[in-house]
Amino acid sequence: MTSIDALHPRLPSPLREVSDPRFDRRGLRLLLKRDDLIHPDLIGNKWRKLVPNLEAAAGRTVLTFGGAYSNHLRATAAAGRLLGLPTVGVVRGQELAGRPLNPSLARCAADGMRLHFVDRSTYRHKTEPDTLARVLRATGAEGAYVVPEGGSNSAAVRGCQALGEELRGRADVVALACGTGGTLAGLAAGLAPGQRALGIPVLRGGFLAADIAELQRQAFGTRRGHWWLDDRFHFGGYARVPNELDAFAADFEQRHGLPVERLYVAKSLYGLVALAQEGAFERGTTVAAVVTGRPFP
User: Fold this and answer.
1) 3 lies in a domain?
2) Looking at the structure, do residues 65 and 122 belong to the same domain, yes or no?
3) Contact, 264 vs 179, CB < 8 A?
4) pTM of the model
């Protein structure tokens, strides 16, 4: 099995200041934390969340969960290929007989991941012991190391704490997109007193605050750091990319030479621009946007 160290991550990830008139005229500094440059296959928060779990797996099969376009499944499959680990992806939704896999799942399969499709009802109950046991039996992976959907568990949260530590003293507000909340939970714990972490949820529902607080409790025993959420920028829910958001992302790419991933990063950047224009940050504030991923080919 290949050592994690042999993957040569780029850490700490680069931090660069960019000039953007939407921030400049409000007296704000904008920094981009380029976690998308950590590793070509284990990108951004996927590196920070997966590596502690891969180390804990200690060579066992890794089984995890995701939707048909899950970046987490894709990163886990890539990690399995690079490290020689067997991986199993439990996919939400029924496989359509005779239909080819979508490009994301095809990449997972090419990287050696065994895909197991379950109906949506089963998927909703995947964390329940009886349901999980049935899934493990059905996949022949009873001894597998199980990583939750999105990779967010105590090990992942502690792994993401390093992201906050890398940003200590570098920004007043650190913002990022949130799916399951594990990255924000760790980031906030790693920041210095006085720094604030802002999460932009990409899913509808308003449930994430309780999940993040629980992740921090499991990882650290209590809530850690100063963090908050702004639920206004999900654009209708996960994987919803209306024309307005796509145009915003294309414009940001042109302004700053940054490939903007649409499902997460675009929503966080859009939210930051909107908050700046609303006057949500005092003049003199330094805002760091964490680029947690990049567009997949």
Assistant:
1) no
2) yes
3) yes
4) 0.92
DSSP assignment string, 102-171: PHHHHHHHHTTPEEEEE-HHHHHTTTSHHHHHHHHHHHT-TTPEEE-GGG-SHHHHHHHHHHHHHTTTT-
Average pLDDT, integer, range 239-255: 97
Range of the domain at 103: 61-143
The stretch 7-22 carries a mean pLDDT of 95
SS3 content of the chain, % helix, strand, coil (to 5): 45, 15, 40
Distance CA 87, CA 142 (A): 13
d(CA 33, CA 168): 12
Taking CA atoms, 195 is separated from 19, 212, 217, in Å, by: 22, 18, 20
Bridge partners of 181, per DSSP, are none
Strand, helix or coil for residue 251: helix
Last residue of a domain, one of 143, 166, 183: 143
CATH number for the domain including 26? 3.40.50.1100
What would the pLDDT profile of 222-237 be if each residue is shown by its tens digit? Answer: 999 999 999 999 999 9
Eight-class DSSP state of 233: G
* Cα(226)–Cα(195) distance, integer angstroms: 7
> Does residue 5 surpass a pLDDT of 90?
no
Q: Average pLDDT for residues 27-48, to the nearest whole number?
A: 94
Q: d(Cα 145, Cα 138) in Å, to the nearest integer? A: 15
Sheet of strand 226-229, all strands in order from the earlier edge strand to the far edge: 15-18, 29-33, 286-290, 173-178, 196-201, 226-229
What was the pLDDT predicted at 201? Answer: 97
